[in-house]
Amino acid sequence: MIRYVLRRLALAVLTVWLASLGIFLAVHALPGDVATQILGRDATPQAVAAMRTELGLNEPLWQRYGDWLSGALHGDFGTSLVTHQPVADELTLRLRNTLLIAALAIVLGIVLALVCGVVAGLTRDRWPDMLISTLSLAGMSMPEFVIATLLALAFAVAIPIFPAVVTAGPDATVAELLPALWLPACALSVVMAAYIIRMLRTSVIDTMASEFVATARLRGLAPARVVLRHALPSALLPTVNVVAMNIAWLLGGVVVVESVFNYPGLGVLTVDAVHNRDLPVLQAIALLGAATYALLNLAADVVAMLLNPRLRRRAVA
Fold first, then answer.
1. 35-39, 82-86, 185-189, 246-250: least confidently modelled range
2. Which one, of 275, 256, 262, lies nearest residue 82 by Cα?
3. What are the pLDDT digits (tens) for 222-249?
4. Exposed e or buried b for every residue in 233-267, given b needs 16+ CB within 10 A?
5. Cys staple from 267: which of 103, 117, 180, 255, with CB 3.0 to 4.6 Å?
6. Is 86 helix (H, G, I), strand (E, B) or coil?
7. Rounded distance, CA 96 to CA 44, Å?
8. CA 92, CA 81: separation in Å to the nearest integer?
């Protein structure tokens, strides 16, 4: 098992390295000139040339990539071209704020998906299944910004329970941000749960029709024990990777949702960085997303192996 985890970890490191190379090349292939963007179109050619030299844009591309990657491995992502502050310092507060939303969305989404997915699977073709399937299909079909807007209209305008727009800055305390967490987290959790519900429903139906569940019923075990002790662990196996991919999706979905609510997290920082061509910030956020995606997939494989004895034996072999 340890050998399998090490192999998967090496593959994750390779994936992140390839992603870092792609991120660097893609960002530097963007049209326009960073120096001109910073100084403005009225800047003289001499000023633009001096700014390019100061930013290191005259150095060979491979050398710039090596310097950036070396710094990133040590936690130094460079300096923001807009605020002139270390990128790592800007990311720290923004990442904390985004993680607050992500953590709440993950808890709400997984609990909602587990309850609805199991209920839908156990009540196949009956009204609870039809209702849950219809709502989950609607959640999959609607973009997250539409769900966020509808929640804001319902619970910030029609029934003013939560704030519609966040006015606090990135350095706000958790207590100050707490009232503003719920609407963005609920918008993300609805979309995330919809995909998991569809997968879990199908998995529960297949598991309940399996031979080992029929054997457990013939032994006279209570229905709750049959579901919780025998069917549910097996039904969760196909959904582990779906959960991991949806958690990784949060980094992309949060960009849109945070922009709707003006929430001071990574999403708003990403939009501002794209608008201002703040390349170091863009590179750091993209690399963070790639590393998160690789680690979540590694965690999903390990969890699936722990839940399935056959996968453990195959990994040992």
1. 35-39
2. 275
3. 888 888 887 888 888 778 777 877 777 7
4. ebbbbebbbbbbbbbbbbbebbbbbbbbbebbbbb
5. 255
6. strand
7. 40
8. 17
Stretch 247-276: mean pLDDT, rounded? 82
Whether the CB-CB separation of 281 and 87 falls below 8 Å is answered with yes
Cα 160 to Cα 149, 164, 176, 179: the distances in Å are 14, 9, 17, 12
Domains and CATH numbers, the chain: 91-316 (1.10.3720.10)
**Rg of the Cα trace of the chain?**
24
Mean of per-residue pLDDT scores for the chain: 83
4-24 burial, b at 16+ Cβ within 10 Å, e below that, comes to: beeebeeebeebbeebbeebb
**Residue 137: which of 194, 82, 181 has the closest Cα?**
194
Lowest mean pLDDT among 36-40, 102-106, 110-114, 115-119: 36-40
Question: Which residues sit opposite 79 in a β-bridge?
Answer: 86
How many CB atoms within 10 Å of residue 222?
A: 11
Q: What is the pLDDT of residue 197?
A: 92
> Closest Cα partner for 147 from 139, 157, 159?
139
Report the Cα 278 to chain-centroid distance in Å. 22
Helix (H, G, I), strand (E, B) or coil at 56: coil
The tens digit of pLDDT for each residue in 86-111 reads 888 888 888 888 888 988 998 999 99
Q: How far apart are CA 4 and CA 19, in angstroms?
A: 22
Q: Which tokens is 86 given?
A: 């270390």
Q: Note the pTM of the prediction, 2 decimals.
A: 0.79
The Cα 259–Cα 184 span in angstroms is 10
Q: For residue 201, give both structure tokens.
A: 């429903």
Tokens 């009232």, located at residue: 179
